[in-house]
Write a structure and sequence with these properties.
Length: 417
């Protein structure tokens, strides 16, 4: 081993050939295990992209969670009971009304009396689709949208030529059936009875004549005075006369006693059938004039003059119009299942529309539907509007308008006008 001198201030080192050889061998092995520079660069880029993807994924997860949380917060805020905001809006409405609002407006209920609020749509309590009960072409139409009609007013007329002819034919069939039944019940006239009796007696005389002639021919045949053929001809004529007398005797009894009960009942059944056909024909003819079934307003017109209407066919018009009584309106409201416990029958309500924000109508819960909508998680509730005056029908509140319904707590009277 060789020791070398070190500069001043440094520790001298030893030079060992074996140690140097071992160090060189280890260095070579380490170099052989190192990756190529291009491979190392590719792996660095891969790690960079993976890190960037993880960061973007984390940002997306955090952003989605924040958006979901904000949406839940808004939903909870919209479903919460009205608080000071409602009271503030009511104060603002009161200030606006005091500054010159409409005299017919009503104040909004204080927040402490409100159980729930929800939006819905105004619907008629009874909306009627007017359809003809017979088919035909419209020859007269007397309806317009928005027109108010009274019960029994003529709305339209259908061509009735065919139905009138059916009525006349049915009338004739009824007359024939009546005459037939009368003839059977009253029996034959006295002249017919006398004629039937005379025919019967004449047939008996003819029968007795041929009987006497047969007896005479029989004696002559024994003495060989007449041929056998002459005797046989007399026997034949006697037999025919005897049968004719029996037939005319039965005819006389029928004329004298009248028809049998079975034939009388058959004639009565024919009369009843003819009367039923007449009633049906008159009903169809009467339905050619279409009248309003109730008092109300025409909402929509579905046909025009000249249209072919048929209530049971797919072609042409199947209805004339839609009408409803606009004095009997309801609000169809959907209440969340979690809030349905705050709604009950006959609960007092206040109704406001976007078209008339200064107007408040009164109402009450008339119906809670017996089935929920599981897709929306709501229960449909009907609120009947009770403050519609006759002169206000169809003026402020119209079907399909949006309305905000305020449900008042129990024992809280509505603050209406």
């Amino acid at each position: 081993m060789q020791v070398t001198d070190a500069p001043e201030g440094r520790v001298p080192t030893r030079t060992d050939p074996a140690h140097d050889a071992t160090s060189a061998t280890l260095s070579d092995r380490v170099r052989s295990l190192r990756l190529a520079p291009d491979v190392t660069a590719d792996r660095s880029r891969q790690r960079w992209w993976i890190g960037l993807g993880l960061v973007l994924l984390l940002v997306g997860i955090v952003g989605g969670w924040l958006a979901l949380r904000r949406g839940n917060s808004e939903a909870n805020a919209s479903s919460e009971k009205p608080s000071s905001g409602v009271a503030a809006s009511s104060k603002a409405d009161g200030a606006n009304r005091g500054a010159g609002g409409k005299s017919g407006s009503a104040p909004v209920a204080p927040s402490g009396t409100i159980a729930n609020q929800a939006k819905g749509y105004i619907v008629p309590a009874r909306q009627i689709l007017i359809s003809p009960q017979v088919s035909g072409r419209i020859v007269e139409l007397r309806i317009l949208e928005g027109q108010r009609v009274n019960e029994g007013d003529v709305l339209a007329r259908i061509e009735d030529t065919e139905y009138r002819a059916d009525r006349d034919r049915a009338k004739a069939m009824v007359d024939i059936a009546k005459w037939t039944l009368t003839e059977i019940e009253n029996g034959s006239r006295e002249e017919e009875k006398r004629q039937a009796y005379a025919d019967w007696k004449e047939a008996e005389i003819q029968r007795d004549y041929w009987r006497t002639l047969v007896d005479r021919y029989q004696k002559l045949l024994q003495t060989k005075t007449i041929p056998q053929e002459q005797y046989d001809d007399a026997i034949t004529r006697f037999t025919a006369a005897e049968q004719r007398a029996r037939r005319l005797e039965n005819a006389w009894y029928l004329v004298r006693d009248g028809a049998r009960d079975e034939r009388r009942r058959m004639a009565a059944a024919d009369l009843a059938r003819a009367e039923a056909e007449l009633e049906k024909a008159e009903w169809r003819l009467a339905n050619c004039v279409i009248r309003a079934p109730v008092t109300g307003t025409i909402l929509r017109k579905n046909a025009e003059k000249g249209n072919l209407v048929n209530p049971i066919a797919m072609q042409g018009s199947y209805s004339l119009c839609e009408m409803a009584d606009l004095s009997d309106l309801e609000v169809d409201v959907s209440i969340q299942e979690r809030d349905i416990a705050e709604v009950f029958l006959n609960q007092k309500c206040q109704i406001k529309t976007e078209s008339w924000p200064d107007r408040t109508d009164e109402g009450y819960v008339s119906r809670l539907m017996p089935i929920a909508d599981r897709a929306k998680g709501v229960v449909s509730v009907r609120v009947k509007i009770t403050s519609i005056k006759q002169e206000e029908e169809g003026v402020y509140l119209k079907p399909e308008m949006t309305a905000l319904v305020t449900f008042l707590k129990k024992d809280q009277p509505p603050q209406g006008h």
